[in-house]
Amino acid sequence: MSRLWMVAYDIEDDRSRRRVHDLLKDYGERVQYSVFECWLKDETQAELRKRLVAEVEEGDSIRWYPLCVWCRGEVVWQGRGTPADDPGFYLL
Question: CA-CA to 81 of 20 to 30 Å: which in 13, 37, 74, 75?
Fold first, then answer.
């Protein structure tokens, strides 16, 4: 089962910041300049965290915020933007 995560980063080096951005765009949707919303299964989140650790240096920051169903419904934004797509459920 997937869970929605908000991943925010503050990376000083341009190259490292670009690599972090490129990694995250493969896992989620960019909602702000340095913020992504990602639907991740536990094993996928662990894989992404491991890959991101290799990109951060001392002084850099990556923060993970879990967004539960209730929290997601309470998200408020102003200006441009839309909610991240919910992958929904599929019955086979």
Answer: 13
pTM of the model: 0.79
Closest listed residue to residue 5, CA positions, set 60, 64, 87, 81: 64
37 beta partners: 6, 29
The reply to whether CATH 3.75.10.10 applies to domain 3-73 is no
The CA-to-CA distance between both ends of the chain, in Å, stands at: 15
Report the C-alpha gap between 33 and 16 in whole angstroms: 15
Pairwise CA distance, residues 50 & 25, whole Å: 16
Is the Cβ–Cβ distance between 82 and 72 less than 8 Å?
A: no
